[in-house]
């Protein structure tokens, strides 16, 4: 369902506001590649962070545990643009929680 929705959004066949994701437990939503937070995939918005991640296609449920996000960077986050992007991403992720219920679409 996520891939189909992303396809429809990317080809302007479906408004980004017409379907909203309830995150549920995050077992079917890819962190970087799916449209689940904001108006475009996080891989586009935070490209420098995406390139530092050890795994491109991980699911939300693979990196969220006990109320916090676990990261696996290829190298440490340093100052400058990377640090600024990291801080912005942290602010967005602080508003997100996953539940024990399956991922749902409304």
From TrEMBL:
Q: What is this protein called?
A: RNA-directed DNA polymerase, eukaryota, Reverse transcriptase zinc-binding domain protein
């Amino acid at each position: 369902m996520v891939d189909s929705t992303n396809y429809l959004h990317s080809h302007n066949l479906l408004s980004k506001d017409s379907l909203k994701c309830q995150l549920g437990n995050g077992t079917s939503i890819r962190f970087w590649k799916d449209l689940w937070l904001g108006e475009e995939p996080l891989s586009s918005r935070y490209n420098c962070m995406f390139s530092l991640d050890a795994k491109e296609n991980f699911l939300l449920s693979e990196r969220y545990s006990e109320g916090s996000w676990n990261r696996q960077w290829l190298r440490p986050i340093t100052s400058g643009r990377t640090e600024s992007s990291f801080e912005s991403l942290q602010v967005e992720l602080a508003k997100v929680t996953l539940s024990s219920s399956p991922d749902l679409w409304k």
